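Today's session is about reading a structure prediction critically. Students often jump straight to the picture, but the first step is always the sequence itself: look for stretches that repeat, for charged clusters, for runs of hydrophobic residues. Only then move on to the predicted structure, which in these notes is written as discrete structure tokens rather than atom positions. Here is the chain we will use throughout the hour.
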Amino acid sequence: MVSAVLPALLLFGQAVPAAEPAEVGIGYLFSERGLEPLALAEVPAENDGRAGAELAIEDNNTTGQFLNQHFTLEVAELADGADLAAAVGELARQGIAYVVADLAADELLAVADAARGAGITVFNIGAPDDRLREADCRANVIHVAPTRSMLADGLAQYLVWKQWRRWLLVEGSHPEDKLLADAYRRAATRFGAEIVEERQIEDTGGARQTDSGVVQIQSRIPVLTQEAPDYDVLVAADESEVFAAHLPYRTWDARPVAGSAGLMPTSWSPAHGQWGALQMQSRFGKRFSRPMTERDMLAWTAVRLVGEATSRTNSTEPAKIDAFLKGPELGLGAYKGQKLTLRPWNLQVRQPILLTDGRVIVSVSPQQGFLHEVSELDTLGIDQPETACRLP
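Below is the predicted structure for this chain, in token form.
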């Protein structure tokens, strides 16, 4: 009897084809960035950011094969003056419900508004503007990139912990520099530091790299920083990368530099190796033959958030995935000592801030002693009682 039944069972098993995996498409929108960094060693790779997204797709598919889920990445570069609504519409026509956006603030808002009508969730990895999480917040935008206020608070906590409370604030002349300077002013007030004086360095144009640059800079920078009131640390607000890289070792007084040069706050660094990050750095290096940058890690995190929600819900339905992402059960391991969660009031990803000099990780914020009734990570950036965001 058994021998007669077994062939029938085998035949039956062979006759049932395996179900096709459920497809999950993720879009990646980016636009060309502005000026290259002052430091030639920091010129970004052509696939900066996208490489992180590709690695995350592979990670998602490693888990997805057990759940019969398959993830793909659709990359689209936006030219200057591109029709953003049309770009979003094209992704929607391909059935894509999630878009990783490496865009400036105004571009991101245009994409988010177009995506809302198409039922697309946008993951912001490129715009640190606090207003995108506050007055200009959108219910379909999850912010993976930390805000300027989170970065400033992370640095400020360490400087205060070190008792370096007297700051000389030097800011650039571009709008982004002024927004960053505002974040440092807010951080100083919040954590008990004092800005003893503020100075501005005007961007007058000209070549960013010249043969005589070292001689000119070596004579100019000390003059720009002389006769300042007594201070513990120079805090540079130079998001446009015009002058800050030239400040260390050239100030009039022998003082450390922090902010846009020297000791810098960031969400990720190639120097980071704790909490399993060394394994991540090694995997990335073998796959792409270069170090993993902050933008790579932000893109990896965004794509992995989709993968985590899809696997945890065992569903590819956008409504279920969106509910999980915005719910209390979300917790993504991202090699930073604690799982990443989402602030429900403005959809900002909570995350530690690394402080690095470019070669090693000096510290990680939030610092010990900075307490919060919900999460110590909420000591970084704008907290719920302060928020101007009103999500539906």
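Discussion point for the tutorial: Confidence is low (pLDDT under 50) at residues 1-12.
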